[in-house]
Amino acid sequence: MGEMKKEERGSWADPSALGLFGLAIVTLVACSQKLGITDGTAAVMGWAIFLGGCAQLIAGLIDLRKNNAFGGTAFIAYGLFWLAMAFGWATTNGMFGSYAAETFDPRQTGAAFVAYLILTAFMTIGALRTTKVLFFIFLAIDFLFVGLALSAFGVAREATHMLAAISELVISLLSFYCAGANILNNHFGEQFLSLGNPFWSKKS
Question: Of 6, 76, 164, 203, which is least surrounded by CB within 10 A?
Answer without folding.
Answer: 203
